[in-house]
Nuclear pore complex protein NUP88 (Ananas comosus), 838 residues
Amino acid sequence: MAIMKAPSPPSSPPPPHGSDGGGSIRRSPAPTPAPPAPLSLPSDPQKKPSLEWVPLQKHPVFASRSPISSDSGELRRGSAASGGGSSAAWDAALSRLYVWDSVSRCVHRLALRLRDLDADSASSTDFSVVVEAAIPSEKLIPDTQIPSIVSHISLNADGSSLILAGSDFLRVIYIYERISVNGNTVTCRMVSVASQILTGENSGLQALQISWHPFSNSHLGVLTSDSVFRLFDLSSDLERPEQEYYLQPIKPGSCHNAVSICPVAFSYGGHHLWDRFSVFILFSDGSIYVLCPVVPFGSLFNRRYIQEIYEDVIAFGLTSLNPKIVSNSRLAISWLEATFPDVADQSTEVGSVSLARAHAYAPVDASLSFQGPLCKVSHGEENNNIEGKAVGFLYNSVGKDSIIVTAWSSGQLQIDAFADEIQPHWNTSFPPRLDIDRHGDLRGFAMICESNFQDNSASKLQNQLEMGSNSSNNVDSVWLGPSPPLLRLALVDLALPNANPSCMLSLFPDPLVGERFYCVHGGGIDMVSLHFLPFSDAGTNPKPPSVHPILATGNEESCSPFLSGFVTIADAYGHLQIVGITLSYECIVVEMKGWKEPMPINYEFDSKSANDEEAATIPEFISKELLAGPKTIILPASASLRSLTADSIEGRSTLHHYIKLFHENYVEYAHKVYIELKEHADYLKTVIDAQQKRLHAVKQSLARYETKEQGINDRIDRAFKVYELLEMRLESFKTLPARNKKPLSRAEREFKAQLDRFGNIELDALHSAIEALNARMKRYSQPSLVGSSPQQTSLRGRNYISDNQMSLLKSSLEKLSIINEQNTQKLKLIENELKSQE
C-alpha cells in the first residue's frame, strides 16, 4: 500500500477507438537517463512540446491548486446522486484519466502510465510502481455553459462521449467533435439530454442515477425521483426517451407506504443468461426489484448466448402442463424471435454469425412486470436488525453466481446471492404505449410496470430451498412468475463511529478480482473480499467475508464522503492502483497488490508453527542451563544469626552449611562454565564450518539464478524481436489487396455455382455447337464447282440444289451468325463476371 500524487496528458487526443481495451495499461521499466513514453501519441501537423512525466499527485492540475471550499458542501450533498458521485472517469483502452474541475468548469484529460521504481527508490518506499502523468495535459472546455454543480462524470465504452451530470441536469460532451483548439485547451461540443424532463432546481424532479448501458455506446439509463426508469438513445433523439418504465413497487391497497419507499439506485445485469437483459433497482427500504427483459434498440449481443437462452425457454417452458407457464414462455419466445430474428432462422449456419443485433420490438398487449420485492431466504438464522436506509447498490457476476451488495446508512453491508435464475415476465393487464413513425417502424414505447407481489412467495421459496432446487415444481415456479429469491451470504458491519441516516456509502467493483469490492465512506476506503460463493464453491464450507481498511481519513466526527472521484487502474501484472480525488482537489493513489491479498488465518493446532521449525534449525551455542545462571540461595529470615559466634558449635555448623550451599551452587556452576568455554571453541568451529557450507551453497544458487536470469532476459529480448517482426508482417499483410474482402453471401454463392456450371458443362456444349455451325456455314457458303459451268449436271446419288433453296440457306446462315455473335458477347460477359468474382 502506498500513497502518491499526479501529472497531466498530452495536447492532442488520439482518434476514436473501440471498446476492446482490456482494462489494463502497460508498465514502463525503471528510468534510465530518459525513459521513453509507453503511450503512442497521435501525430499532429503542428510541433508539439516534449512530454514530461511526473508522479500523478505532483501534476500541476493537483499540486498547483489551493484547497477549495466554495462548492465542497454542494459536492458533498450531491455525491449521492448519479450513482454515488464521481468526478473522475478512466479510459482503460487509451490510458486516459478524466477529472472534472469545479472551479475552472472544465475537464482535465491526463495521460497516465505505470513505471517500475529502481532498487534504491523501491527500498525506501512501501510500493514498487509509481503512477505517472504527462505534462502538458489537455483541458476540455464545453462550448456551452453548465447550469449547476457537476456531481458525476462517466465515459462510454468506446471513449467518445462523456457525461456531465447533476441532480437536475444532464449534459454529454463529444470528445472528438472539437470546435476550436488553442494549445492544450480544446473546446468540445456539448449537448443537453432530457432537458424537458430535468428542467431545473425548482421542478422537484431529480436524477438519482445516470449510467451508460454496457452493451451500447449510445444508450443512457436514467433513474429519476418520480420512480421512472428511462433509456435514451443519444444517436437518434436527445429529448425523447427510447424506452420508459413507470415503476409501481407498492402492492395495490398499500399506498400508505408509498412516501417511505422511493428508488435509490439501479444496476445493469451481467453476462449470465437473462441477467444481461435485466435491470436491478434498489429502493430506500432495501427492497430490490427486477425489470426483465430490457434491451437497447440496435445493441449487439453474442449470438451463441442468445441461442442458449432460446433453447432453454423451449425446453422448460413449452413442455409444462400449466397454462400460465406456457403463456409466459410463448411471450418470451415471441420476444426473442422478434428482437433477434437470426435466432429463429434455422437456415442461418451455426457459427457463421457471431453477433446478433437487437431489433426494435415491444408486445402490443403486454407490459413488463416489476418483479419483486425479491424475498430473502437463508439456511441458518437470519438477522434482519438493519437500521437506517439503503444508500448504495452493487451488482456483480462472479463465476456461476450473481451477487447483490446493499449499503445502508448505518454502516452495514448486506451481501446476497441469487438462489435461482432471473426469468422474464410480462403483465397483460397494462398494454404499452407505442411510438410508431410514418413508415410503421417502432421508435420507442412506455410501460406501466406493476409489481407481481405474492404473499406466500417467501415461504414457498424457503421450502424449496430446504427441499432442493432440482425438482420439477421449482422449474415450473420460475416460469409461473414468482421473483427469484436472494440467499443471504453475510451482513458486514463496518463499525462507523457516527453512522446516521444521512451517511453516504459508495460501492465500486474490483476490475481484476470479481469476489472483491470497495466501499468508500467518510472514514476512508474499505476492501471487502468474499471467500465463499454458493454455486461456484459448492461442496465447501461457508467462510465469512473479510474486511481490510486500505485508507483511513482519521476524521471520525463526520460520516460524509471525503472523495469526489474514485477510479481503479489495473495493470498487466495483476496489480491495482486506486486513484481518489478529494473534495479539496487533492489526488490520492493507493497501490493494491491484487494477488497478494491477506486471507483469513486458519490455525491448525496439530501442525508445528513456522517459528518452531525455524528455531529447530538454529544451533545452540551455549547451554540454556548456563545462561539461566546459578541457583539463588534463599537465606532463612531468622534474627538469631546475628547472636551466633564463629567459635561456637552452632556458629560453625551454620557456617559449614552455607559454605556447602555456596559450593553446590556457585563453585559447581563456575566449573561447568569453565568446561563449556574450554570445549566451546571446537563447537563454534564446527558450527561456523556448517554455516560456511550453507553460505557457499547459497552463493552457488545465486550464481545459477544469475545465469538463468541472463538467459531469461535473452529469451525476452528474442520474444520482443519476434513480436516486432510479427507486427511488421501484420502491417504488410494489411496492405494486401484482398484484406478487405468480405465472405460471399448465400445468394452470391448460389450465383457463383450457376456460373461454374455454365462454364464447365453448358459453355463447352455451346462452343462445340458454334464450331459445328461455323463449319456447316463455311461448307455451304463456298460456290459449287459444278454450278460455275453453264450446264448443270446432276451428281450421282445427290439432288441438285436450286437457287431458291440456296438463298434460303444463306439467310439462315446469316441469322445463325447473328445469334453466334450474341452468344459470343454473352460468353464474354460471363467470363468477366467469373474473373471479378474470383
User: Anything to note?
Assistant: The chain has a mean pLDDT of 77. The first strand starts at residue 24 and ends at 25. Residues 24-33+47-299+358-596 form a domain with the Methylamine Dehydrogenase; Chain H fold (CATH 2.130.10.10).
